[in-house]
């Protein structure tokens, strides 16, 4: 089975292991900071009863399971599958919420190579059904994280599918997104931006 | 790592492989019929634009990944994790929908051993947030499948946690649930029951 684009094995252990001894970010660790920050944020939202939002497990095709003892099951052959939905979903203020989160080290643009077509199709469907749907995009070099509503993202994506730009410019994202406040707890308070865009604007 | 209760490795191949040559249902195949029927049903609902509902991937703790070639990644050590949410969720008629599906070969009761406490806690939270939440329970021997709204399920669960019955009687499920119509396409039209219970009753 081919190794699907954009899927990398999950690194283990704390963030400090994501850097080599000379301080460079290890290849396999790219994108982990945003994921960990969102995990912490979602745990905080869950504890405080504000929302129920979870990251979906990484989809894996299990081929063989070994039973070294009666109570143990070890998967000894499995492969990563291309995800057919976005990574995060749940419920907030009675509404269905669905999003994908991506991090890039590019300083000028967000390349579409980071997103699977299946995921965008899924998000479009959820959007059409009346869900709250967006993409969280982090520019690591600036330490800036944006929430881009799917309705603002889709025109760029359609243009790309018709042979246009293979990325969205940083400046275009800035114009069409909400900059997320970062803190200690929660680390990325993205629901404040959801309140602002989806509830106070009356969309 | 211990092999969590209720989680069995996924059997491979078509339904016919679920039986031994003398027609007995193989141990590892229990519960697969309902899962396959729901997969087909959800695919049908997706194609027809009625709802966007997916089964979540099986949660797996990936310990080691091998790269036999540049484009291949083989997971050669992983373990099943206890799920922290229910298996199915999505959006229907603008509402968040969340459910768990379980099959039993018991003819008199549905044993709670089939359900994890984390999953019930998750469903309770989604219910409190205003989601449409239920459990689909199939009695294989009768070929009957029921949709039990979480509000009807919780009293039995609470009693169990306080030392009461470790199961719900078949007759109690019959009284507190909607019997699901089975067909060819979709195989289990559970959204008709959702319409009836959550929309027409005005709950």
UniProtKB/TrEMBL annotation, chains A, B:
CDD domains on file: RecU-like
GO terms of molecular function: crossover junction DNA endonuclease activity; magnesium ion binding; nucleic acid binding
A Pfam cross-reference name: RecU
Region listing for Disordered, in residue ranges: 1-26
Entry's Gene Ontology cellular component terms: cytoplasm
Binding-site residues for Mg(2+), renumbered to this chain: 85, 87, 100, 119
Enzyme class: hydrolase
Cofactor(s) this protein requires: Mg(2+)
Catalytic activity as recorded in UniProt: Endonucleolytic cleavage at a junction such as a reciprocal single-stranded crossover between two homologous DNA duplexes (Holliday junction)
EC number from the UniProt entry: 3.1.21.10
GO biological process, one term: DNA recombination
Cellular localization per UniProt: Cytoplasm
Site (described: Transition state stabilizer): 102
Keywords noted in UniProt: Cytoplasm, DNA damage, DNA recombination, DNA repair, Endonuclease, Hydrolase, Magnesium, Metal-binding, Nuclease
Family per record: Belongs to the RecU family.
Function: Endonuclease that resolves Holliday junction intermediates in genetic recombination. Cleaves mobile four-strand junctions by introducing symmetrical nicks in paired strands. Promotes annealing of linear ssDNA with homologous dsDNA. Required for DNA repair, homologous recombination and chromosome segregation.
The name this protein goes by in its record: Holliday junction resolvase RecU
């Amino acid at each position: 089975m081919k190794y699907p684009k954009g899927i990398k094995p999950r690194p283990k252990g704390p963030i400090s292991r994501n850097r080599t001894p000379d301080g460079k970010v290890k290849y396999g660790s790219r994108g982990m900071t945003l994921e960990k920050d969102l995990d912490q944020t979602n745990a905080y939202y869950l504890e405080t009863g504000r929302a129920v939002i979870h990251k979906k497990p990484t989809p894996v095709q299990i081929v063989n399971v070994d039973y070294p003892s009666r109570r143990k099951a070890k998967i000894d052959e499995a492969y990563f599958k291309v995800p057919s939905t976005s990574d995060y979903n749940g419920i907030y203020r009675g509404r269905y919420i669905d999003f994908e989160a991506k991090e890039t080290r590019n300083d000028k643009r967000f390349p579409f190579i980071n997103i699977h077509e299946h995921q965008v199709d899924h998000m479009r469907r959820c959007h059409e059904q009346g869900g709250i749907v967006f993409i969280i995009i982090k520019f690591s070099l600036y330490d800036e994280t944006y929430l881009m509503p799917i309705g603002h993202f889709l025109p760029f994506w359609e243009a790309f599918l018709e042979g246009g730009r293979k990325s969205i410019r940083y400046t275009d994202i800035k114009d069409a997104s909400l900059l997320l406040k970062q803190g200690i707890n929660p680390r990325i308070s993205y629901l404040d931006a959801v309140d602002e865009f989806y509830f106070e604007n009356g969309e």
